[in-house]
Design brief:
With 117 residues, the chain is an alpha+beta fold. The chain has one domain (2-113): Winged helix-like DNA-binding domain superfamily/Winged helix DNA-binding domain (Arc Repressor Mutant, subunit A). Helices cover 54% and strands 17% of the residues. It has a three-stranded antiparallel β-sheet with strand order 2-5-4. A two-stranded antiparallel ribbon has the order 1-3. Strand 4 and strand 5 (80-86) form a beta hairpin. Helix 2 (18-26) crosses helix 3.
Length: 117
């Protein structure tokens, strides 16, 4: 995953968030890989760009852990594609990851708001 118009130092901050973003996107319903990448880009106002080299290994990892299920289908452009859905186990994982991410983001925000000594 990369950040458009930003330096590489920002991408390190996003390490580990791709799984969360994929799971969150799939809460909206069944989607193929390119559709997931497109939704993440759209929902982030074109700030987050998910490249194929990151997306497909993440999808395989999530499927292997039982968080998502995949089946072959036909896309809107009439192409054969794998469509992914969130499993019950994936919904539980999403809830855990969202909670943890919010906890960490709140802690970072507190540090950023604190006055220098």
């Amino acid at each position: 995953m990369s950040i458009r118009k930003r330096s590489d130092r920002y991408s390190a901050h996003l390490q580990g968030t791709l799984d969360l973003l994929i799971l969150r996107t799939l809460i909206l319903g069944r989607q193929h890989g390119q559709g997931i990448a497109r939704l993440i880009q759209q929902q982030s106002d074109n700030v987050l760009i998910v490249d194929h080299g990151s997306l497909y290994p993440a999808l395989q990892r999530l499927e292997g852990r039982g968080f998502i299920a995949a089946e072959w289908g036909v896309s809107d452009s009439n192409r054969r594609a794998r469509f992914y859905t969130l499993t019950r186990k994936g919904r539980a994982q999403l809830a855990r990851e969202q909670s943890e991410w919010r906890r960490i983001a709140a802690a970072i925000a507190r540090v950023l708001r604190s006055s220098p000594a």
